Amino acid sequence: MQGKYKALWLNHDNFLEVIDQTKLPFSYETKVLKTTEEIVSAIKDMTVRGAGVIGSVAAFGIYTACMEIESDYEQLKQKAKLIRESRPTAVNLMWAVDKMMELLKSSNNLIEDSKKYAIDLNDEEAKESQNIARYGCDIIEDILKQKNKTRINILTHCNAGWLAVIDEGTALAPIYEAKKRGIDVHVWVDETRPRNQGASLTAWELTQSGINHTIIADNTGGHLMQHDMVDMVITGADRVSANGDVANKIGTYLKALAAYDNNIPFYVAIPVSTFDFEIKDGVKEIPIELRSEDEVKYMRGVDSDGIVREVLITPKDSPAINYGFDVTPARLITGLITDKGVCKADLETIEKKFRG
Ligand code: MRU
Fold first, then answer.
1. How far is the CA of 145 from the centre of ligand 1 (A)?
2. pTM of the predicted model as reported, rounded to 2 decimal places
3. Among 172, 198, 211, 212, which residue's Cβ finds the most Cβ atoms within 10 Å?
4. Using a 6 Å CB cutoff, which residues line ligand 1?
5. How far apart are alpha carbons 314 and 288 in whole angstroms?
């Protein structure tokens, strides 16, 4: 949790309340999600987004579903399926639903137990993000020492802050920790077309925390790297295969290639729930979400009267295609910053460290 904010909470009526992320950065609004249908829509339309938070909402979604069906586990399974299928790429969603359903199998009080398990799951994630913050910030300190510098320039893509993962985020967690440790940190924020999670959400988060940052158009990173203006890249991830390939917001792969070419460390910060041990080749096998072409063709912003408007920026009839994610091969990744420590992105290390 950063300052006064949290991405979601149970309100005084015991319903899930979330920040409506589609309204940021122009207005801060919250939404109460009272039914399974509302939970599923909030995930689909990205009222809530970011791998970890989708998982958290899914866990509370199971609790919400339990309130609707009361004690019929078979009926709960059908609602769980709807939640599980609401978005395809972030594995935290499936992980959270499966974990909740497994825990509830032998429950005699679905409502009470699901509420407790969802709260536990979120408390656990919050602790994990604090660990990621510490391990990641140790790397920042090492880089500063090696380079004999006092200011670190970090490039990040999309939003992997506390809006995306309870409670400190993943990619942004080490940055928040750096601020706490008194490190002079500056963040290059990729705008992250088409939905602009960087320009709208990461920039908003960093502003709330008083962290120095500059928004850049998505294609700027390579140029900055060639001119020694980036010391490291940190991104989050939506799914990491057993061999260390990383699915993250579309455009991440190009940043990893540019970082590799310029010998700049490229780290990916994740909780262990982001691993998909069943997938051995992420590039070939991780399912990539295809979203509406309108997200590419239209942009949203505030006009000079302060009114939020959506405008068409392409010829009306030109077709567009909107892949939500891409996969960065493990060979381009310097290391994975997990809640259990930093490790290499390769099959042997991952299996040994995380599968016992
Ligand atoms: O489509 P989104 O906004 O849900 O995408 C997820 C992301 O925000 C990113 O890919 C992020 O870097 C990883 S989420 C911890």
1. 31
2. 0.97
3. 172
4. 49-52, 158-160, 164-165, 170, 197, 235-238, 248-249, 324
5. 24
